[in-house]
Write a structure and sequence with these properties.
By secondary structure, the protein is α/β, with parallel strands linked by helices. The chain has eight helices and 13 strands. Helix 3 links the parallel strand 9 and strand 10. The longest helix is centred in the N-terminal third of the chain and has 30 residues.
């Protein structure tokens, strides 16, 4: 197919956009160069990105002093949790500036698709993903599985956290017992907490200490309330559930890193109602189901779709009861969304 030609107006617009981008980059480098020439930048030092604000990041040094830093043009996009080398600058209106010179290799990265169909990292160097669920908004196994597939492909340990246990009653007790038991059999750890009950949070606090964690889950499951309890003084905005939909309203606008008093860090990321996996391949989806990944290579046909093919290892295991019918259905539903999109 021949390349589509641009008319004069379109070509002018493209050129103008490119010039504006180049001009912004030049202005940023000019600011950095001016600081360098004026001797305003200190020696290179290691730091941690604790928040991101458009073209700048907030960096913390070893003594937990913070700096609002520009980025060198060739660094790409940084996220909360990135470890960097930066040079502190001058103080202006109570804010100390700086310049990030380089970013170290990420040990892990949590990414998700944005509204423009682009895969964007959310946070870096995470040890554990705290998948938070609650009775309201109602937790569904397929949504949990989507988060777990993402965690498995990121090679980050997930833990399932049932919050708002004060809403557990005789009507829904068995449902949540069965739900968590299903994941316990697969080797996933789970905890039950209530942000209003400090006694229920002790095990969670011990688990999070000396780890870098990120809370994920639907809006309204109580992530911000939990963090406010775990980190007095964080004062995150808490949103009420919509009376019509019983879904939460988004309250977090940017990812930020907080320190636990006894060690360990927590990254609070923007709430999302559904963790889209359409950017993944079928192989990545099946890898995200830890009980299915090894079986997939034992099918009779290498390109087995695990539907009606003879000697399908997954369906044979399903018939024997070796794998959960609900999890297999969840896998099929996720796979179907890839086909639809």
């Amino acid at each position: 197919m021949s390349k589509r030609k641009l008319n004069r107006r379109q070509a002018w617009r493209v050129e103008k956009i490119q010039q504006e981008k180049a001009s912004r980059a030049d202005r940023k480098e000019t600011v950095i160069s001016d600081q360098l020439n004026a001797g305003d930048l200190g020696d290179e030092t290691h730091g941690l990105v604790i928040a991101h604000f458009g073209t700048q990041v907030e960096v913390e040094d070893a003594e937990r002093n913070t700096y609002r830093c520009f980025l060198r043009a060739n660094l790409g996009s940084l996220v909360t949790g990135d470890k960097v080398v930066f040079r502190p600058g001058a103080e202006f209106k109570g804010v100390t500036s700086g310049v990030v010179e380089m970013v170290t290799e990420r040990q892990s990265e949590l990414s998700r698709p944005n509204s423009f169909n682009e895969i964007k990292p959310v946070a870096a160097n995470i040890d554990v993903i705290v998948l938070t669920i609650a009775p309201e908004p109602e937790a569904h196994a397929n949504l949990i599985d989507r988060y777990l597939v993402a965690a498995e492909n990121c090679d980050i340990e997930p833990i399932i956290l049932l919050n708002k246990t004060d809403l557990i009653n005789e009507k829904n007790q068995q449902r949540f017992d069965d739900l968590l038991a299903q994941y316990h059999k697969l080797g996933y750890r789970s905890l039950r907490v209530c942000s209003h009950d400090n006694d229920s949070l002790s095990e969670l606090k011990n688990f999070l200490n000396n780890r870098i964690s990120v809370f994920v889950g639907q809006s309204g499951v109580g992530k911000s309330s939990l963090i406010n309890t775990l980190l007095p003084g964080a004062d995150l905005r808490v949103g009420a559930l919509s009376e019509n939909t019983r879904k939460g309203r988004h309250t977090t606008t940017t990812a930020r890193l907080y320190h636990f008093p006894d060690g360990g860090d927590l990254i609070d990321s923007p709430g999302i109602r559904e963790f889209g996996l359409w950017h993944m391949s079928a192989e990545e989806v099946i890898y995200g189901f830890r009980e299915l990944r090894n079986l997939a290579g034992s099918c009779r046909f290498r390109d087995c779709k695990h539907q009606a093919e003879p000697n399908c290892a997954l369906r044979n295991a399903l018939e024997k009861g070796d794998i959960s019918a609900l999890r297999f259905q969840s896998y099929q539903r996720i796979l179907a969304t890839l086909t639809e999109l």
